[in-house]
Design brief:
Elements (H helix, E strand, L loop, with lengths): L1 E2 L9 H29 L2 H6 L5 H8 L7 E2 L22 E8 L2 E8 L12 H15 L3 E7 L9 H19 L4 E10 L4 H4 L3 E5 L4 E3 L3 H8 L5 H5 L1 H8 L4 E3 L2 H14 L24 H4 L10 H5 L7 E5 L7 E8 L2 E8 L5 H16 L4 E3 L6
Parallel strand pairs: 4-5, 5-6, 6-7, 6-8, 7-9, 12-13
Antiparallel strand pairs: 1-10, 2-3, 3-4, 10-11, 11-12
Helix pairs in contact: 4-5
C-alpha cells in the first residue's frame, strides 16, 4: 500500500469558505434532531409531578457513564407526517441506539413519551424493526424502555398494522437465538404494545406507573359494562402477583433501571463473546476535521473521493482495486482502527465497467469477511 498525497490546499479561501458552509449545514442537521428533545422537554414538569424520569434521563441512567452511545435512525419520520419543514419532528417518538450497559454492548429502544404520550408515528415501527434486525445480526441484547399510548390512530394506515407483527416475530427470533430481550415498563403499554412485555424474556415493572393490557378500563367498560380500576386491570403489581408477566417489581424509574443494569451484568454475556485482538494502528495523516472543507456544499461540483478516504483510514494508506478499469467507481482496500475494510465511492457516474468491477469487489470482500463502507456520492 502507499500513503495518499492530498492535493487539497487547506489554506485557500475556497477551502475555508466551503468548510464554513458545510459546518453550517451540520449545525442545521443537529438543529433538526434537537427538535424532538426540545418538544419532549416541554413535558418535564409533568414527569416530575408524577415522580418519573424523562425519557432521556432514563437512557442516561441505563447507560454506563463515559462510554460511547451510537444513536441510530435519529431522523426517522422527518417530513413524513407533514410537508412543513419547520414543523416536522424527526425521531419517530423514540430514542434508539447501541450503548453499553454494565459493560455489555446492547441495542436500546426507548419510547419518547414526552411527545404525544409516546404514540407511534408512521415510522416508529419500522425504526424498531430495523433495530431488532441489527440486534439479531450482531447478537446484541435488546433493551426496550416502554411508555407509549400505542398507535396514533389519527395517522392510521393499514400497512402499518400489516407490518406491525414483524416486531413481535423478531422478539421471538431474538429469544430463540439465545439473545436476551428486556422491557422496563415505565408507563402504559396498551393494545399491540402489550405484546412487547408479553414476548420479552425479562420484564421490570414500575410500581404504580407501569401497565400492560389489551384495552384500558374505559374500553373494558364500553365493551363489557364492567367497571375496573386501571391498576387492578393492568398494573405492574397485579402482573407481578397474578399473571406473572412482570418478573421484577421496581419502586420507581431509577430503581427499575438499576434492576435492568444488574440483570444484564449477571448474564455473563461478554464471556460468550470472543474478543478481537487489539491491533496497533496509525491515525490518518490528514486531519478528519478537514473533510468539511474537502466535500463541496454544491453537490454538482466534482471532487476526488480519495481525498475523503485519506482523512478516514489508518495512515491515509490504501490500495486501489482495478484503478484503470471502470475508473469512476473507486474501490479501495484499507484499514480503520486496525480493522481491514473495503471502501466504495464514486468519482463520476457509474457505468457498466464500474458496475462489473463493483460486483467483483463486493464478492471478494464478502469472501474474506471484510466489511464494506459506502461513501454515497453517486451522481447516477
Amino acid at each position: 500500500m502507499a500513503t495518499f498525497t492530498s492535493k487539497i490546499a487547506t489554506s485557500s479561501e475556497s477551502y475555508a469558505a466551503n468548510r464554513l458552509d458545510m459546518l453550517a449545514l451540520v449545525d442545521q442537521l443537529h438543529g433538526l434532531k434537537d427538535r424532538a428533545k426540545q418538544l419532549s422537554e416541554r413535558r418535564r414538569d409533568r414527569f416530575e409531578e408524577r415522580g418519573q424520569l424523562t425519557p432521556r434521563e432514563r437512557l442516561v441512567r441505563l447507560l454506563d457513564p463515559g462510554m460511547p452511545f451510537l444513536e441510530l435512525f435519529g431522523l426517522a419520520n422527518y417530513m413524513v407526517d407533514t410537508n412543513d419543514r419547520e414543523k416536522s419532528i424527526p425521531g419517530a417518538s423514540s430514542l434508539t441506539g447501541i450503548g453499553f450497559i454494565n459493560g455489555v454492548r446492547c441495542m436500546i429502544c426507548a419510547s419518547d413519551s414526552g411527545i404525544n404520550a409516546g404514540a407511534m408515528t408512521q415510522k416508529t415501527g419500522e425504526k424498531l424493526r430495523y433495530c431488532q434486525d441489527i440486534a439479531i445480526d450482531k447478537k446484541l441484547p435488546f433493551v426496550h424502555l416502554v411508555e407509549s399510548a400505542g398507535a396514533n390512530l389519527l395517522k392510521y394506515q393499514v400497512e402499518s398494522w400489516a407490518w406491525g407483527g414483524g416486531g413481535f416475530q423478531r422478539l421471538a427470533k431474538l429469544s430463540a437465538a439465545g439473545i436476551p430481550t428486556f422491557v422496563v415498563l415505565h408507563g402504559p403499554s396498551t393494545a399491540g404494545g402489550a405484546y412487547f412485555p408479553g414476548m420479552s424474556d425479562y420484564v421490570i415493572g414500575i410500581k404504580g406507573r407501569g401497565r400492560a393490557s389489551l384495552g384500558g378500563a374505559a374500553l373494558v367498560r364500553a365493551a363489557t359494562g364492567e367497571i375496573s380500576d386501571e391498576e387492578e386491570l393492568a398494573g405492574s403489581e397485579m402482573h407481578a402477583t397474578t399473571t406473572g408477566l412482570v418478573e421484577y417489581l421496581a419502586e420507581d424509574d431509577a430503581h427499575g433501571l438499576l434492576i435492568a443494569r444488574d440483570i444484564i451484568g449477571r448474564l455473563g454475556w461478554n464471556d460468550k463473546c470472543p474478543r478481537p485482538k487489539v491491533k496497533p494502528f496509525r491515525g490518518p495523516v490528514y486531519d478528519p476535521e478537514e473533510i468539511a472543507g474537502v466535500v463541496p456544499v454544491d453537490y454538482r461540483k466534482p471532487y476526488d473521493v480519495r481525498e475523503v478516504v485519506a482523512r478516514l483510514v489508518d495512515g491515509s494508506d490504501f490500495e486501489e482495486f482495478k484503478p484503470r478499469y471502470g475508473s469512476t467507481l473507486v474501490c479501495l482496500q484499507t484499514n480503520i482502527f486496525g480493522h481491514a475494510c473495503g471502501i466504495v465511492g464514486n468519482n463520476g457516474p457509474i457505468d457498466p465497467d464500474g458496475a462489473a468491477k463493483g460486483g467483483q469487489f463486493f464478492q471478494l470482500c464478502d469472501q474474506a469477511n471484510i466489511p464494506l463502507i459506502f461513501l454515497n456520492n453517486i451522481t447516477g
